[in-house]
Amino acid sequence: MTDDRSPLSRLSDQRVEYGARGEVAAGTDPFTFFSQWYAEAQAEIREPNAMLLATASDSGPDARIVLLKGVDPAGFTFFTNYTSAKGLQIAADARVALVLPWHDMHRQVRVQGIATRTSAAVSDEYFAARPRGAQVGARASHQSQPVDSRAAMHAAFDRVEAEFADAEVPRPEQWGGYTVAPHRIEFWQGQANRFHDRFVYESADRPAALDDAAAWTVARLDP
Ligand SMILES: Cc1cc2nc3c(=O)[nH]c(=O)nc-3n(C[C@H](O)[C@H](O)[C@H](O)COP(=O)(O)O)c2cc1C
């Protein structure tokens, strides 16, 4: 039994009223809409680029947070280890979903699309821009594999540091980006009485350029 004074016992009483932002109208194309919402999120909340990435796995759906590191009309880009659990799952089934959960703004953006690896040049460029410690860490980690101890992790880190003591740390081959090319994007704005605004853009189940207004149909959904 949960203690009555525990925050967990009060979850059903926890209620936030939405709607202070006013109503939302659909924009012309999803790129313009997303750009505008992202600019507002960046001004108002911490880590607006933290997003949920959902993948299909043999044991059912899987999900974790990754950082959005680029958006252009081709899609949404994040970086990771290609041999991690998510990397192997994407290799088997490239259909993924993203959720940007902007709670403090009573907003979320949901994306469904196809993930493809970024070019080596794009991965190299982003890897080179990372702090050196993160570069070393990326080389020292076999992401999602079991490791004996924190000490073993530090030893692996130190080995990589020693190996590249006087040199730039090269991007490991198994580390790089994915771009999610969307065919469905939903913008959700919380409203009073749980009567929210939802606009969904769809491109006939095929990924389309986000700024190509003619490729997208937009519909308002019931909350
Ligand atoms: C705020 C936050 C940001 C993260 N950003 C990334 C990221 O950009 N890339 C990444 O590979 N993992 C990132 N992670 C870690 C992942 O959530 C996850 O633990 C890791 O990628 C292993 O996932 P997998 O075993 O499903 O492959 C982040 C976690 C948090 C909480």
Describe the model.
Residues 40-161 form the Pyridoxamine 5'-phosphate oxidase N-terminal domain. Its EC number is 1.4.3.5. Pfam families: PNP_phzG_C, PNPOx_N. The protein has a single domain, classed as Pnp Oxidase, Chain A. The two termini are 34 Å apart. Helix 4 (132-140) crosses helix 5 (150-163). Strands 1, 2, 3, 4, 5, 6, 7, 8 and 9 form a nine-stranded antiparallel sheet that branches. It is built from five helices and nine strands, in the order αββββαββαααβββ. It has helices at residues 30-44, 85-92, 120-129, 132-140, 150-163, and strands at residues 50-57, 60-67, 70-72, 75-81, 95-102, 107-117, 175-189, 197-202, 217-220. It has 223 residues and is an alpha+beta fold. Helices cover 25% and strands 31% of the residues. The structure holds flavin mononucleotide. Residues 50, 62, 64-67, 78-81, 84-86, 143-144 line the site of flavin mononucleotide.
Return the domain count.
1
Indicate the radius of gyration in whole angstroms.
Answer: 20 Å
Series of secondary-structure elements, N-terminal to C-terminal: HEEEEHEEHHHEEE
The end-to-end span amounts to 34 Å
EC number: 1.4.3.5
Cofactor: FMN
Protein name: Pyridoxine/pyridoxamine 5'-phosphate oxidase
Pathway: Cofactor metabolism; pyridoxal 5'-phosphate salvage; pyridoxal 5'-phosphate from pyridoxine 5'-phosphate: step 1/1; Cofactor metabolism; pyridoxal 5'-phosphate salvage; pyridoxal 5'-phosphate from pyridoxamine 5'-phosphate: step 1/1
Set out the fold topology:
Layout: H1 30-44, E1 50-57, E2 60-67, E3 70-72, E4 75-81, H2 85-92, E5 95-102, E6 107-117, H3 120-129, H4 132-140, H5 150-163, E7 175-189, E8 197-202, E9 217-220
The structure holds flavin mononucleotide.
Flavin mononucleotide is lined by residues 50, 62, 64-67, 78-81, 84-86, 143-144.
